[in-house]
Amino acid sequence: MLLEQLLSNAIFAKSQIIAGHSGLSRTVQTVNIMDAPDIIHFLRPGELLLTNGYFMKENPGALLELMTKMDQLKCSGLAVKTRRFALDIPQEVMDEANRIHFPIIEISSVEHSLGEILQRSTSVILDNRNDELQYSLTIHKQFSAMIMKGNGIPEIITALTQLLSSPILLLSSKLQVTAHSHHFMQPSMQSLISAAESVLRGIPAIQAPAQLCLLDEALRKYRHIELYPIFTYRHEGYLIAFQPKQAASNQYGLTLEQASNVIGMEMTKRQAVKERSRRYKNEFFSDLIDGFIGSEHEALHRGKKYGLKPQGTWLLLAARKDEQTGLRGGMTKNAASADERLISERDVQYELIKRHFLQLGADFVMFTKNDLFGMLLFIQEPKWEESAFLKQLAAMSDQLHEQSQLSISLGIGNPVTNVLDIGLSYNEAVKALQIGYQMKKTRFIQSYQSKDISYLFRMIPYDELKQFYEETFQCFSGADENEQKELMRTLNIYYDTQCQLVETSRQLFVHRNTVIYRLDKCEKLMCIKLKDPVASLRFRIAFAIEPLLRVGKSDSSHREPGFLGR
Predict the structure, then answer these.
(1) To 10 degrees, what angle do helices 501-508 and 481-496 make?
(2) Residue 405 has what DSSP assignment?
(3) What angle do CA 425, 429, 434 make, to 5 degrees?
(4) Strand pairing partners for 49?
(5) What pTM does this model have?
(6) How far apart are CA 204 and CA 479, in angstroms?
(7) In degrees to the nearest 10, what's the CA dihedral of 142, 148, 152, 155?
(8) Which of 44, 131, 429, 556 is most buried, with most CB under 10 Å away?
(9) Are 392 and 360 in contact (CB under 8 A)?
């Protein structure tokens, strides 16, 4: 409780404040009695000291020293029975008490002994503390009930404003206004927001409740600030109350404290919901990219909530913060605190990138995979201009670096029209990102060979590609599975090495005659000459589209035989 509250009790009815009147707003937690010159070593912050001044009678300078040390220790004040031993308090002590706002109370007229004053004061303090706890519990229940009924943070701010009759402001950790009371609807109150932001921007992040005072005379009406930090697993911002003078009761601060706690709980709940939703989204895109979704129907069904439709064109982007020159496959295992800090930093980066990407006006879905940020962009074909989009990305990257000091690089895959090809486009974006880092670049935007042959293949419907592939290798259906694998693997490497027998045998680790035998058997089964230009082109195309078909097949029974060992 405050010192002035304690002194207003009947125990101190006949006491007199003789110095340090402006320090009555100090907090009293306990009361002590001095019975030794070295009492300062046994005092604690928030303690009111009772004394009859016996040892100071012959040494007036000891009182000044004691008072100075008590002020440094943040004690509440000094209550003295000066008449008991005719103690005369020097004027220099009175002047210093007024200067440092340290209350000195004359209690000679109080009829009780120091022991009785100690006992009764302690009882008052405990009763007050019990009242405060009851009040805190009531306020906490009131705010918690609002959350349980589905009310959000704006409703809590409104209720808090009614309880305190003060303007209330909620700032994020980036000092952006996230909620406010009705007072700030008035244009004249905007200067108050600017003043608070300016003060907080000039000091380190505040970790505990604090009281600030605005020095601008124009803001005199609300110059005193009660500030309470908001925490979840990280620092989320500040709950601020403005008032013309410092609060005369602890209930003001208790109300703000409980409101900040409940707001922190609400933010934690929101983050949990958001994190769960984001985790489901990340798992879906990870399954889609890694080929664990086996059919277009399943991909569209699971991806419906993310905007995936049967007819569409998509572009994949992969982004990463420029903190290393290469790409990592996963998160490095460090201490728990370092992991939490890394997760928190990645959350901030995710929100920053998403916020700036929204400014492009593009329709997209953002997800994370390992240490990369992925963006699935929905393209409207007639309006799509790649060059204009690349310029927009470059401007966004520059703005992100300038405003938030976040340097990122982006890799861009090729557009796809089949939902099962999204994984191919993403892998192309990752490869483009790798190429940029291999060239020792940062803050770059790298496209992946935007018009190569695979781009043309992806423009052909999946069913027609599959039919072409199956018809090309239908001739091998009569051979057993192991023989199919050997013949098709040999044929593929033979074409990859430009029909060089020696190089083919070297890559297969078999004798040259074995290669010749296998190729002869292929010619007999297919009834063609392998070096015939038309036949050679057909088989090369079939081998080239095989990776596109494998993306849509998670069940091994649907894969063409002979490609599991490649």
Answers:
(1) 130
(2) -
(3) 145
(4) 32, 78
(5) 0.54
(6) 74
(7) -30
(8) 429
(9) yes
